[in-house]
Design goal:
Layout: E1 4-8, H1 12-24, E2 28-32, H2 35-44, E3 49-53, H3 61-70, E4 79-83, H4 88-96, E5 101-104, H5 109-123, E6 131-134, E7 137-140, E8 145-148, E9 151-153, H6 157-168, H7 176-184, H8 193-207, E10 215-218, E11 222-225
Parallel strand pairs: 1-2, 1-3, 3-4, 4-5
Antiparallel strand pairs: 6-7, 7-8, 8-9, 10-11
């Protein structure tokens, strides 16, 4: 699954340049024109990284960053602050309020793509690796193989994508709607209960008869992969 980058920028031409170059670099993108819109989009589908303009109408980028950092669900969400402010004091303010990096306008699109890749590598090493490991579960992304405690686990394509999505961000609770978007895709109509069916299949394949269940069901919220639950 391609990483999702949320671009929060009220200048349409600038947002379009970022969208074009990030898409060309094999990222998915979403655009918000205001701070409030950005917070709504994060609630609907949490991105892998946010490019956040400092000077936004009404709710500033700095305040958006503070609010993201104040919530448990988005505390670790990578943020690159984008601004025309170049003074050292402003850079320090941005970083002190939770930004992971700081890019001053004007900038080269190639520089922004490089910054995004670098921040993602630090925040989510799984995005640059060929293997994912969590607890006693290991996924080989190149060969599409899964093992648990050294034993091969046979999964169908959907269960494989579902497990990969969960293991990339262990502990995070995904709603059924979010899993539908990430695993099946937004353009495919599938009922939410289909997620429950495939979660049951995934559990059966992973757990066998004796292995502890690492998939946590959160009533009214969704599912997460959580070794502490077992």
């Amino acid at each position: 699954m391609k990483p999702l980058i949320l671009i929060v920028e009220d200048e349409a031409p600038q947002a379009e340049v970022l969208h074009y170059n990030l898409s060309k670099a094999d990222f998915r993108t979403s655009i918000a024109g205001t701070g409030e819109d950005a917070l709504v989009k994060v609630e609907e589908e949490q991105p892998d990284l946010v490019i956040l303009d400092w000077m936004l109408p009404e709710l500033s980028g700095l305040e958006v960053c503070r609010r993201l950092r104040s919530k448990k669900e988005t505390r670790g969400l990578p943020v690159i602050m984008l601004t025309a402010r170049g003074e050292e004091g402003d850079r320090i303010r941005g970083l002190d309020n939770g930004a992971d990096d700081y890019v001053v306008k004007p900038f080269l699109p190639s520089e922004m793509v490089a910054r995004v890749r670098a921040v993602l590598r630090r925040a989510r090493p799984a995005l640059s690796e060929d293997k994912l490991d969590y607890g006693d579960i290991s996924i080989d992304l190149l060969e599409h193989k899964v093992t648990r405690n050294g034993t091969s686990v046979h999964l169908g394509p959907t269960e494989f994508r579902l497990l990969t999505t969960l293991i990339e961000r262990p502990g995070r609770v995904f709603s059924r709607e979010q899993l539908l978007d990430l695993v099946w895709g937004r353009n495919i109509h599938v009922e939410e209960r289909t997620v429950d069916v495939h979660i049951r299949r995934l559990r059966k394949a992973l757990n066998g008869e004796k292995m502890p269940d690492l998939i946590r069901t959160v009533r009214g919220a969704g599912y997460s992969l959580d070794a502490e639950k077992a």
